[in-house]
Design a protein that fits this description.
This protein is an alpha+beta fold. The chain is about 40% helix and about 25% strand. It has twelve helices and 20 strands. The strands form six sheets. A five-stranded antiparallel β-sheet has the order 2-17-4-13-14, with no helix packed on it.
């Protein structure tokens, strides 16, 4: 158990430090049957894979985690367009908003043809806000603190964090403000910092909470003080770090005439819609959320698919210089799109020389208006299925595209399942971390 906990810590280190800053989704959770399928795939992979040695590059861990997470992002994009059911690729329903400046919506539920689709009217009265502390504006090139070691505390999310720093001879207000901004941002505690200017040569440190909204039991999302800190105090008062310029507030709106309040501007309704509040409504004029037609939904899903596909290729190309074998992945993905080139071209999807696909929205929309639109779009389902298969392979074994040397091939008549491939991947992470 201790080894599992240590390995989990190692992966989280790489994930938070190097991996793409994506968000988790409902498609990151899996049924027992799906996990069993992954396990069986690993066993099969280990049984057939030769033994090899990986080139000991310093950034091999970053490469492996980055490739795996990019593949996960692409899988989630495709899953989100099918409601998580691979047999329903690109059949996900799409919704529209009558005023996207006020609210945008996406459909996250599952409905059959016989289900009555819920109607929504939403009037946004106020948006959720972050807490912002904006400090004193001080002359950028001066300094009013004596050289010494200072510290201050930030209380956020029921935890206290102490920050220590040195003021050296010759340091300026701007130097220290930049230093504090780096310290706070690197700590990832839920408070973001930046140095701001007022146009008169004066600078201040602005602190903003990552969270929005506030509960009835709270008065502030974070508190900055140096009353009981371990080093020299005086920083908070000098820079004005505890001066609140904007209080955290909840979003308030009317949903079908009923008053509602949320901590964030993005939330779900009855496990059916994900709403994003973008602005305040004109009094008495609600925005209407409605279901798009099958053709409109399919067209929108195609657009999201191509965006995810192109993003995956662009992220993979960033590794080519340091890990040339990644070029094979780009070629593999390009070959998939080339297999469907003629049919894709006919509906407005043009395969480029670098493997990415450009989208001609006017031609796609023109195709969508034809009587046989859904039939002509059927090819894109096969394309999406092939892309999903490749993404699953990369996610299962990102080391396939790392530079390595074959040591020995398995005996084809007596190949046995062993943990070499997956332990090689996890062991590489652990050794690099240590």
């Amino acid at each position: 158990m201790a080894n599992i906990a240590a390995l989990n810590t190692v992966y989280n280190h790489y994930l938070t430090t190097f991996a793409p800053k994506g968000t988790s989704s409902q498609y990151d959770t899996h049924k027992k049957s799906e996990l069993r399928s992954v396990y069986n795939s690993i066993v099969k992979l280990n049984k057939e894979s030769p033994l090899y040695l990986i080139k000991a590059d310093a950034d091999i861990g970053e490469f492996a985690v980055g490739m795996k997470e990019n593949a996960r992002d692409l899988k989630n994009v495709i899953s989100s367009l099918s409601g998580g059911d691979e047999n329903q690729l690109l059949n996900k329903k799409a919704v529209s908003s009558s005023d996207e400046g006020v609210v945008t919506a996406s459909y996250i539920g599952n409905v059959s043809e016989d289900d009555e689709f819920p109607s929504l009217e939403i009037e946004v009265q106020s948006l959720a806000k972050n807490q912002i502390n904006e400090g004193k504006y001080l002359p950028a090139g001066e300094m009013g603190l004596d050289p010494d070691t200072y510290s201050f505390d930030i209380h956020v999310r029921d935890l206290d964090y102490e920050f220590q720093f040195n003021v050296n001879q010759g340091d300026t207000n701007q130097d220290i403000q930049d230093k504090l901004a780096r310290l706070i941002n690197k700590s990832n505690i839920g408070v973001e910092a930046e140095r701001v200017e007022n146009g008169e040569g004066n600078t201040a440190l602005r602190l903003k909470s990552s969270d929005t909204g506030i509960s009835d039991q709270q008065s502030e999302l974070f508190v900055v003080s140096d009353h009981h800190t371990s080093k020299m105090s005086g920083t908070v008062d000098y820079f004005g770090l505890n001066q609140i310029s904007q209080n955290a507030e909840n979003a308030r709106f009317l949903l079908n005439g009923e008053e509602r309040s949320t901590y964030a501007n993005e939330f779900t309704i009855e496990k059916t819609f994900r709403l994003s509040l973008n602005g305040v409504s004109e009094p008495g004029i609600p925005a209407t959320i409605g279901l798009k037609t099958d053709v409109e939904s399919f067209t929108e899903n195609i657009s999201h698919l191509i965006q995810g596909y192109n993003s995956f290729l662009q992220k993979a190309s960033e590794y080519v210089d340091a890990h040339p074998h990644t070029g094979r992945l780009i070629n593999d993905m390009s070959n998939i799109s080339l297999n469907y080139k003629n049919n894709l071209d006919s509906i407005g999807l043009t395969v480029q020389d670098n493997g990415t696909i450009s989208l001609d929205k006017s031609l796609l929309q023109q195709t969508a208006q034809e009587d046989d639109a859904l039939e002509r779009f059927s090819t894109i389902k096969s394309f999406a299925g092939s892309v999903l298969g490749k993404a699953n392979q990369v996610s299962l074994n990102p080391m396939h595209y790392a530079e390595k040397t074959i040591v020995a091939y398995k005996n084809p008549g007596w190949s046995l399942a062993n943990p070499y491939v997956t332990s090689n991947y996890s062991g590489m992470l652990f050794n690099s971390y240590c």
